[in-house]
Structures are given as structure tokens and as C-alpha cells.
Amino acid sequence: MPHPTHWKGKELPNVLRRLFDVPGGHRLAVARQHGAYSTIGATLFDKSPFELIELVKDSGLRGRGGAGFPTGMKWSFVPRGTGKPVYLVINADEGEPGTFKDRLLMARDPHLLIEGMICTGWALGVRTAYIYVRGEMLPQIQALNHAIREAYDAGLLGENIAGSRYSLDIYVHRGAGAYICGEETALINSLEGYKGQPRLKPPFPAVSGAFANPTCVNNVETIMAVPWILTHGAKAYRRWGTDKSPGSKLFSIAGDIGRPGVYEIPLGMPMPEFFELAGGVVGELQGCIPGGSSAPVLNAEECAKAAMDYESLAGLKSMLGSGAVMPFNATRDPVAILRTLTRFYAHESCGQCTPCREGTGYAHRVLDQVAEGKGRDGDIDHVRDLADQFEWTTICPLATADAWPIKSFTGKFRPAFDAYLAKNPDRAKPRELTQLEPGAFM
Ligand SMILES: Cc1cc2nc3c(=O)[nH]c(=O)nc-3n(C[C@H](O)[C@H](O)[C@H](O)COP(=O)(O)O)c2cc1C
Ligand code: SF4
Q1: Which of the listed residues 71, 88, 140, 184 should we mutate to test ligand 1's pocket, taking the one with most ligand atoms within 8 A of CB?
Q2: Based on the domain organization, do 343 and 200 belong to the same domain?
Q3: Distance from CA of residue 435 to its chain's centroid?
Q4: Residue 354: inside a domain, yes or no?
Q5: Are 49 and 174 contained in the same domain?
Q6: Cα(47) to centroid of ligand 2, in Å?
Q7: Domain membership flag for residue 286
Q8: How far is the centre of ligand 2, averaged over its atoms, from the C-alpha of 345 (Å)?
Q9: In the predicted model, is pLDDT for residue 156 greater than 70?
Q10: CA 95, 294, 237, 274 torsion: positive or negative?
Q11: Residue 186: CB within 6 Å of ligand 1?
């Protein structure tokens, strides 16, 4: 189904979805008919890098990879004139369960990513840039490689882009499909050929990233918004969204919803209205994971109050994250959902930090026991206590990303967990510790 163009009498933003429904839009000739590379010329090169960074700051664009960090500010941290090369690395790993927006962008409009990278590269003084793509995204890798070849042939990449004094090379790097390689320092390690394990920060990548040089890591969607902002200005971008969450954002929505898919909406749209736009909740809403699997779950009452922006969801002690929205209805079992989520995080732990390596696996095995009707009194409090211990105590936030679903699901849907415990006639007896030994998947 094509992306809706209007909603409740108003035109929906079209910053990122411009080629979603255009056949052959991944090809240069078609993309150019729709405005691709219109910034690559005087619009870009008449602006100084400093002016471009200020423009992006003024637009209020925030990183779309998960943390929502202001993009212009991040760019301003990258040192200039140090004699070292500056690298731009596009994070196209997209491993967060529920998130499927970047893969659509890359398959449908790879030239917009290249254009955004040229703009960003100009702002930061980058000569070499990488796109780090999850290895199994073959159609996207093909689309990107093809688009990059077309751009080189058209003089839009390589030496003296479009006759300017600016030169940029772009390489596509395939990851091997580990969720942790989406964390920016693990991604850099993997790009360099090492194990994809996060690094201690500081130093931050802006100062010492790829090959120990200043590096800016940005999400696909973040960079693809830049050409629109450059063409139309910061004020035009701010006509959507809220003061602190300006502009538009892609949301991937799946689960108990009428029309699952990827939608570009203004930030700040009320969550119930977004559900309506996406075809309405199927059945009676029980809850929703609003921003990717690590975002604390909301119950139905909270969903009714929520809006799709960073501050509203933070106010409900959850987060917008990568914009992956997963509503579930009253027929779904919160215990089964949490069991699946904790299995994922335990499996994806890179193993460097003891609280994460041991804690995520142990918590999952206890929840496994609960879900199989072998839970003991105190299991849920024990798992919550464990989550408290591995929240924010590790090198990267993966353990925290496991703690949040654990604490929110067991907190908001406690009766469902207690009902499982009640199924076990032996629940008051101590458990054989062998029951909690790592299983085959670890
Ligand atoms: C475990 C983990 C996985 C992540 N996966 C991704 C990912 O797949 N894509 C992404 O853009 N950011 C991901 N991030 C966030 C990145 O570390 C980083 O903040 C982001 O790429 C910065 O880009 P932005 O400022 O444009 O959002 C992940 C973070 C963590 C902790
Ligand atoms: S928190 Fe987990 S995934 Fe992150 S560095 Fe530590 S062990 Fe690895």
C-alpha cells in the first residue's frame, strides 16, 4: 500500500519518503527526476562548513539511531585542522528488534543517503566515508553499491565532486549481523577488522574513532534528512514537530496493527492518532513497546497519553529510541514477550562485562523457568533485583537495554507473571541450581 500523503486534512511530511512509492527510484536517472543531488552545487558549496553545521543545529535535527543526540552539536565536536583525516561512518546495522526503516530507505532511495553523506562530508572535512551495513541486507547492499557506481560515473563522487574543490570516496562495509555492532564503538572495531565489541568511552569517536582518527558516526535516517534541511532551511523543518523534537521521523510499526509498515509523520503526533493512521489497533490494546525492543513498555493507559516525540515518551519513563513501535492486544502474553526479549539480549551480549554476560543470561533462564510453569516464589523480585544490578554498570548500554524491558514488563504486567508462578505446586520449594545452567543457545 502506498504511503499516505495526507492525514486529517493536512499534508504529511515528505522529507524522507519521497521515493518510497516510485518504481525504479533507486536508479540515478529516476532519482534525479525527483530532485536527487539538487543540493550538490552552489547550494552546498557556497555555504562554509561552519554555516552548514550551524544550519543543522538550528533545524534541531536529532540522531535517529536511538539516543536522539542533537546532530549539529555532534558535528561540532569533530575537531578540524588537526592534520588527521576525519571519517564519516554511516550506521546501517539496524539490528534493534522491530526496527525496519533504514533498510527501506536504503533500498528505495540510496542516492539520498549518498547526497546526505556528501553534505555531511563537506561540513566535517571528510575525504573517506563508510556505510556499515548489516551483512544479510543483500538487496540494500546491492542498491547502495549500484548507486555509488552511478554517482562516481556522474562525477558526484570521487575527485572534485560536480566540478567543486571537494572530493569524497564512499565504501560499503558489510557487517556479519551482530546486534552489538550497531553500537558505534563496536561498529568501529568491526570496521577495523577486530571483534565487534564496544570500547570504553572516553575517548569518544569524534576525537578518536576509526583508525584512531576523528570520526562521526551517524544513523542512515539522520543523514538522509540533511539535503532537505539544506534546500528548505531550518525554519521549514521546524514547522513540524515540537520545540525540542522538531521535524519529521520515520516510524516502523508492527504487531497488532491494521497496516504495519514504515510511516513518516511529524514528531509529536499523539500515539492513538498514529495507531489510527496505521490502520488501528487490532483487538483491545494491552500495551505497546514504543521505541524498539529496549524501550520500556507502556500500558494501554499510558499509550492513550503518549505522543510520538522524545520528551513525551521520556516523560512516561520510556523512550522514542529508533522509532520501532510494537502495539500488542489483550490476547498477547506479556510473559512470553519478555521471555523472547531477554533471550535476544542474552544471546547478543558480547561477553566483555561480567554483569551483562552473566546477568542477562541468568535473568533469561529464570524467566524461562517461570514461563514453563516452574517458577518459584520470589523469582520475579529476584530478576528485577538482577536487572537493577546490571543497569548502567557496564561498558555499553546493552545490559541496560535488557534491564528496562525486564523492569517495565514485570512492573506493569505483574499479575500475568504471578499467574504463571501460581501454576507451580512446588513454588515454595528451593530450586535445583542445575535448572539455571546455561542452555544450548548460550
Ligand atoms: C546495543 C546497541 C545497538 C545499536 N544499534 C544501532 C543501529 O543498528 N543503528 C544505529 O543507527 N544506531 C544504533 N545504536 C546507536 C549508536 O551507538 C549511535 O548512537 C548512533 O549510530 C549514532 O547516530 P545518530 O546520532 O545519527 O543517531 C546502537 C546502540 C547500542 C547500545
Ligand atoms: S554491556 Fe554487554 S554487550 Fe555491552 S560491552 Fe558489556 S558485555 Fe558487551
Answers
A1: 184
A2: no
A3: 35
A4: yes
A5: yes
A6: 41
A7: yes
A8: 10
A9: yes
A10: positive
A11: no
**Beta carbons of 193 and 61 less than 8 angstroms apart:** no
Instruction: Tell me if 262 is assigned to some domain.
Output: no
**pLDDT band at residue 1, thresholds of 50, 70 and 90?**
confident
Give residue 439's pLDDT. 65
Q: Is the CB of 94 under 6 A from ligand 1?
A: yes
326-348 confidence digits (pLDDT tens): 999 999 999 999 999 999 999 99
Mutational test site, ligand 1, from 71, 74, 87, 91, max ligand atoms within 8 Å of CB:
91
Grid cell locating 426:
512446588
363 and 224 in a common domain: no
Query: 424 vs 164, 372, 431, CA distance in Å?
Result: 73, 9, 12
Q: Which of 390, 326, 314, 84 is nearest to 213 (CA)?
A: 84
Mean pLDDT for the stretch of residues 292-301? 97
* Domain boundary, last residue among 279, 304, 329: 329
Q: Is the CB of 222 under 6 A from ligand 2?
A: no
Residue for grid cell 494501554: 300
For residue 395, give the CATH number of its domain: 1.20.1440.230
Please check whether residues 84 and 186 belong to one and the same domain: yes
- Tens-digit pLDDT profile for residues 5-51: 999 999 999 999 999 999 999 999 999 999 999 999 999 999 999 99
Three cell numbers, residue 347:
544471546
Q: Which residue minimizes the CA distance to atom 8 of ligand 2?
A: 350
Q: Note the ligand closest to the C-alpha atom of 351.
A: 2
Residue 310 cell numbers, joined: 522524545
